[in-house]
Each structure stands twice: as structure tokens, then as C-alpha cells.
Amino acid sequence: MTAEDFSKAGELVCPAGTPAALRTAVDAGADSIYCGFRNATNARNFPGLNFTPEELQASVAYAHERGSKVLLALNTYPPAGKVDLWREAAEHGMRAGVDAFIVADMGVAQHIATTHPGARLHLSVQAAASSPEAIRYYCENFGVRRVVLPRILTIPEIKQIKRDIPCEIETFIFGNHGLMVEGRCSLTNWMTGLSTNMDGVCSPAADVTYDREADGSMSSRLAGFTIDRFAPEETAGYPTICKGRYNAPHRPDGYYAFEEPISLNLGRLLPDLMAAGVHAFKIEGRQRSKSYVRQVVSAFRRAVDDIREGQAPDIGDLVALTEGQKETQGAFKTKKWR
Amino acid sequence: MTTMQTLRPVPRGAGLPSTALRMALQPVLRRVVRRIAARHPEMFARIAPYQKADFLIVAKELPFALHLRPDPDAPVMRAVPKSPLPPCDAHIEGPFMLLLNLVDGESDGDAAFFSRDLTISGNTEAVVSLRNALDDVDSSIAQETADLFGPPGRAVLGLLRRRGAAA
Amino acid sequence: MELTLGPVAYHWSAMKKLDFYARIADEAPVSTVYLGEVICSKRAPFFEREMPQAIERLQRGGKRVVVSSLAEVMLNRERQATADLADSNDFEVEINNAAGLYARGKRPHRVGPFLNAYNETTIAWMAGQGATHVCLPTEMPATAVALAAKAAQGLGLGVEVQVFGRAPLAVSARCYHARAHNRTKDNCQFVCEDDPDGMPLATRDGTAILRVNGIQTQSESYIELLAELDELRGMGVTHARLLPQDVDMVAVANAFDAVLSGRIAPAEARAQLGQGCPDVSFSNGFFYGEAGYRHIQRRAAG
Asked: What is the number of structural domains in chain C?
């Protein structure tokens, strides 16, 4: 099957943390929706979020009736002894009729490739495949048909990769801007005892506290460690370690050692990304609300349609939805980001 | 949304002392929460670990706070004094219209948090679970509540929304 | 169980590295030494000329030498370095990125800790592709280590676990050393060389918490699994990895060796270690499935 059989170039891949969010995404014009089960088999294993097998089945039916696809994220790394949970999730996904599985672990990829030879595999950003060789490894060994690229490459670099790989490229275009190479980050586990790779959590809410300080500022803490302190009117971000402020020998007054609270928005770069050979555009935010899904998906639906009609896209204003109320084009625009 | 403070306080109960107002509201709130619980049983699975948790929801403009316990067998929603606030597991505070829009899936909780319009304290996981549970409800809880009270209820909601939109 | 010395994660000068490996060759009770640049491709040229000399010196000291590949492969020079290393028949290689696996094909190789060999299915797959030895991710808890080790043993693979040194917690495309000095990665001027044991980060209220090492983020405290060595051995773990820190690594290796050979109790070795690593705190939380930074007091043997 060629790429065009699965979807047209410019496929809009949208997040859903609940069945209601999935329906919202479909209704707002998503070409495909990615989601996960309510357990450690995906990287957004957050409280109250995600799907039961029954909910997934009903959601796939809803999407298919309206011409949208559903991609199931099985993109965490099962620790030894727990592999069965990922295999069961794959079975549930097959039964629900999902259109593709998003995987990171080689064992999970191989299991699905051998047990369900017809299933379509996408390589998760959690696999951190950032070179043609790494991507080809997964394509040739497991039949991967699409790679979700880490958010660390410039557009010319993406173009170069596209020339050397036999599969489609999906890139993030909007949302939370992960700073660490995905699938290689144990920061949360160091502080909390829950692992991003094995448990699917990042700064688990159960370990997060917000405390009002005597001076009116607000401190965000993870497992008791102060991640950041915000002045009363200062905009805030997620309480993740990589978005915190720290002191270093040369920076005694505290600074964002990794990145400030900011969101990715590549609205203006969509034509360049398409010209570079990006097939699918991914919107981050399975942990976000229906309201976010509706606004972001609608905006990018219009933008992609404009581009397809040869017009300049108008992405509107999404800054109110962004972390720290700030936007960046991250690594995509310039090497200087690194 | 930061301009919400300029809104005139929403229903003050025609000068009733706040204790009397709370007393008058209790049976109404009880009816509302039972109705919502009965109509959206699927919501409770998402807050399973926190069905016995006590949430305090504090709308800045209201003279009282709301105490919510999302227990499917004995749901609680009642008006409680703002000072001193009773003990709770989690505390959610923001402008009234923002809270209304969050309940209705019309606003994004993370965005409201980033802009500092929404403040949370206490058990963060409980708050996130509640938010996600509410967000999975397709219909408008505010509308359902208004519908409970017929045309007067809908009129009040309409007025609130127009005020919110004008802000 | 054998002791190994993992690759130096920091940007030490060529001279410092040569001296370090000479001493390891002569004095450290480790069977295997991994070397090569794993973190930043910009640093590699600084030791390229001296590396054969270091390898030869280690081999003369009776050490088995393995060259480790980059954890992150993105730029052309990183792809080239990875391909060149994977093509080598001169020494054993440890691969840390799928690009290296692709280039190596089915020729024998070791799997590094950055390749995410978390479970028996993945390890079996890797064994089928020519892996002879696997170093498990540092964050794996004992329960999973035991099962992974059993699986690896059944496949005839060596199994390695980090037992000493700062925990590698994350890598990024961005250089945080450069960022701390208001520079970019391309214009870093190798400022990371100033911090041979990493650059400390403390929370706003003064708790030392992390270390920056170029694009890598590490823990502030050192992992130390002296009291757990016996249990690791019982699980079938064949190799215990010491990660080089800017302390007397010969003394560190001696302390671990003394416990492994039963000459001294873990508590005594720990006291020695503490003397050799002043101002350092130790952690073992990962092993117990707890927050990594924690130090869990092991109950008396039994």
C-alpha cells in the first residue's frame, strides 16, 4: 500500500485523551486521531485519561463512519515480566480495528509484526530514531511504514532524511515542546519512582504540589523538589523537570536550564514541511481538554486545506493555549536552537 | 479572562446573609448533583480513586464556596462558607465564568493554569482526574442544570453566558 | 561477576584520559574497559589520536577493551562516526543507537544502556541479530533486572548493570552546558571541559539535584549498589559497571572488588567509598523501584 492509499499528504494527526475528545477531533476535521489505553502501555498514562477497550471500539466505529482513522499508541517500553500487558493491548487494538499501532520497543514491534503481519506500524517519537540508518533499521526489520521524528531536526535535515528512507514522515507541529530525547529520559523516575519509559508517566500529578509562598509567589514541586517559582502575574508551565528553573555556578539567580515554559507552533512552516516531504502533521496534547482539541484541530484543518488549495495558510491565534503563553519554532527553524 | 474581576458579583441572593443563602441553596444543589450523577454514570470510572475525595471549588465572585464529593452512591454538592474554608483534599479557584466554562468543556484547564487564572492546591492528581472525568461528558452540564429549573434556569444561564462573552 | 569500567561521559582532556587509562590498566581490578565518546560528537576529535594508545595500554594491562558508540546520532558526522565504528573488526563494539545496529548488521556486538533493552522479548530479538552482551537501562528495578538477566543468560548473553556513578537521566539535542553560558551548541567553545564531574544544578531553594554534561543530564548523587552486588550475582547478572567519575576510580574499583570477593562487608566498603568521594551522596532507589535519588537501607542478609 502506498502512502496515498492510507492518507493524503498533509494528514492531520490529532490527540484524544477521552472518547469525547476523539469525537471532537473527528468533528473538527482530524484525518486521524491517536490515543491509548488506560494503563502503562502508552506515554500519557495520566489519571482519569484514556480509553477502555470498549471505549476504543466505539470510538473507532465513530471515526470510521466519518472517514477518520485511529492510531493506537503502544509507545512505552515494557519492563521484563510485564510484556503481556502490551500484547493484550495489541490484541484489543486489533479487535477494535485500529488503523495503525504506534510503537517504540523493538520487542513490541516484532511481536505485532509477526503476530499480525497486516497491521500497520508507525515508529513512535519515543524510539528516538533521528537518522536515516536508525529509521531504516525499524523499516527493514519490522515493516514500519511511518516514523514520527524527534523534535530536534531542522527542515533541511528532515528533507535529507526523507530522501534516504523508505517510509512516511510525521512531525509534531503544535503543543508541548519536549526537550529531552523521548524514550531516553529517566528524570521523572529519578524524582518520583515512576518511569516515563516503563510506566508512561511524566511528572505524575500525584507527586505535584502547588504551594503559595509568603511573598505571594507560587512554587511548583515534584515529590518535594522545587521545580519553579512564579511571581503572582508570571505565566506558568507544566511542572516538568525540563521546564524548571535552577541555580548553576554561573547562574546563581536561577534560570531555565533546559527550556522555558513554551509551546511548539509550526503553523507558519507547514508549507516548508510539506515541501521537505513530511506526510503527516501531529498535534500534541492527549492530556488536554476537548476545548483545546476543538480549537487547535480546527485551526490546522483550515491551514492544511488552504495549502492544498495553493493559498497561504492562516493559522490564527493559538497562543492562549500555549504553555507559558509563548510559542517557538524550536529546532525546526534554526540550528541555533541547539 | 483576567478581566473577570471587573464583572459585578454573580447572584448575591438579594441581600440575604450568606448563611441563609447557603441554606436556601442546599436542596437545589443536592438535586443538581444527583441528577448529573444519574445521567453520567460513565464519568465516575475516571475518578475511581477519588470518589470519596472532598473538592472545594471557589469562584472568586461568589459569597460561598462549593464542596463536591463525586461519590456515585452518595454524591455531595453543597455550599460552604468561604471563611474559614472547611478542610478538603483539593482546592480549585478561579473566576466564576472560567469555572463554568471548564465544567462545560468550553475552556482548557491547562491554558487557564498557564495564564494563572486558575489556581489549584492540595491533591493535584485528584484535580486532574476530576478535570478529565468532566471533560469526557459530551453534553453541557451547565445547560442540563439550567434545564432542571425550566425557563427561569435557562434565562439565568443565558444571562451569565452573555456577561461572560462580554467580559 | 566481573567488574567493568564504562565509558567516560565527560569532556576530559586527552592528557587526563591517557593518565586515567594508564592507571586503570595497571591498578584497577576490572576485567573490561569501555571507551569512546558516547555523549557529544564534537568532543571525539580531541581523543582520536590518543585512543589507539589508550587501547593498547589497557590491553597490555590485561583488560578487555570495548569501544562504545554515540547515544545520539543525527548529524552527518555522527552518522559517519557510528558507521565507521560499527564497521570495525579491530575491537569489540558496544552500540548505543539503532543507527549503529543498522550498520553492524548481524556481526557480533554489545548492546549499550541507551538502547532500551528493557525486556525479554527485546533481548531475544537483539540476540537474534548478533548481540552477545547487553547492558540494561540504569533505571530498571530489581524485579525486571532478574527476569531480563534470566532471559539473557538463557540466550548465552552477558548481562551488565550499572552499580556505580551518576545516573544517566536524559540526553537532548540541545547543549545545556553551552546554554548555561549563553552559547549555542555550535558555538560552545567546549565549556564542558571546565566541569570534569558535570555542572551542578540546584533547585531555587538550594537542593543540589542534577548535573549537566553537555547534551546529557545526570543525577547529582552517585548510584552505589555495594550491598546489592550479591543479589545481582544471584540473578545471573554477569558484569557490574562502574561509571567513571572524577574521583579515585581505582579506589572505587577496589571497594567493589573487595565486596565481590567477600573480603569485606558492603558497609565497610561503603565507608571507604565515602572517604574517596567526599561531598558525594549515594543512591540506590532505582534498584528498589523507588525514586532513583533515594537510598534504601538494605535489610540484613537472609
From this structure: 1
B163, part of any domain = no
Cβ-Cβ contacts under 8 Å for A167 (sequence gap 6 or more):
A123, A135, A139, A144, A145, A146, A147
Query: Is C264 inside a domain boundary?
Result: yes
Q: Quick check: B19 contacting A, CB < 8 Å?
A: no
Beta strands in A190-250 (DSSP E): 208-212, 218-222, 225-230, 245-248
Beta bridge partners of C133: C110, C158
**In A, which residues are within 8 Å of B121 by CB distance?**
209-212
Do the chains C and B touch each other, judged by at least 3 C-beta pairs below 8 angstroms? Answer: no
Interface of B with A in 30-89 (CB under 8 A): 45-47, 49
Mutate to test the interface with A, among B44, B107, B128, B140 (most CBs of A within 10 A): B128
Under 8 Å between Cβ of A162 and C263: no
Average pLDDT over residues A68-73: 98
**At which residue does the C-alpha cell 524548571 appear?**
A244
Q: Is A283 on the interface with C (CB under 8 A)?
A: no
Contact residues, chain A, for B132 at CB < 8 Å: 17-18, 46-49
**Range(s) of the domain holding residue C159:** 2-167+221-288
Arithmetic mean of pLDDT over chain A: 94
CATH of the domain at C97: 3.20.20.70
Residue B67 has pLDDT above 60, yes or no: yes
Asked if B135 is an interface residue toward chain A (Cβ–Cβ < 8 A), one would say yes
User: B1 pLDDT band (50/70/90 cuts)?
Assistant: very low
CB C145 within 8 A of CB C228: no
Predicted confidence at residue B104, as pLDDT, reads 85
Is the ipTM higher than 0.90? The answer is yes
Cell match 493506537: residue?
Answer: A72
Nearest CA in chain A to B132: A48
Give domain status of residue B19, yes or no.
Answer: yes
Q: d(Cα A232, Cα C208) in Å, to the nearest integer? A: 26
CB A338 to CB C103 under 8 A?
no
Q: Is the pLDDT of residue C10 over 80?
A: yes
Contact assignment for A185 to C170 by CB distance below 8 Å: yes
Chains that touch C (3 or more CB pairs under 8 A): A
Residue B107 sits in a domain whose CATH number is: 3.30.1050.10
**Which positions ≥6 away from C80 have C-beta within 8 Å?**
none
Q: pLDDT confidence of B75, banded at 50, 70, 90?
A: very high
Domain-embedded: residue C196: no
Name which residue leads in pLDDT, B164 or C19.
C19
User: What separation in angstroms does the CA of A337 have from each of A53, A74, C73?
Assistant: 41, 30, 17
Please state whether C36 falls in left (phi above 0), alpha (psi between -120 and 50) or beta: left
> Which triple of cell numbers denotes residue C122?
527485546
Reported as a single tens digit per residue, the pLDDT across C191-219 is 999 999 999 999 999 999 999 999 999 99
Domains of chain A, earliest start first: 3-177+262-337 (3.20.20.70), 193-256 (no CATH)
Q: Is B130 part of the contact surface with chain A (CB cutoff 8 Å)?
A: yes
Which residues in chain A are closer than 8 Å to B99, comparing Cβ atoms? Answer: none
Nearest-Cα residue of chain C relative to residue A248: C201
Please give the pLDDT value at position B14.
42
A183 to chain C: closest CA residue? C116
Given CB atoms, is B106 within the 8 Å cutoff of chain A?
yes
Total domains in chain B come to: 1
Identify whether C209 is part of a domain: no
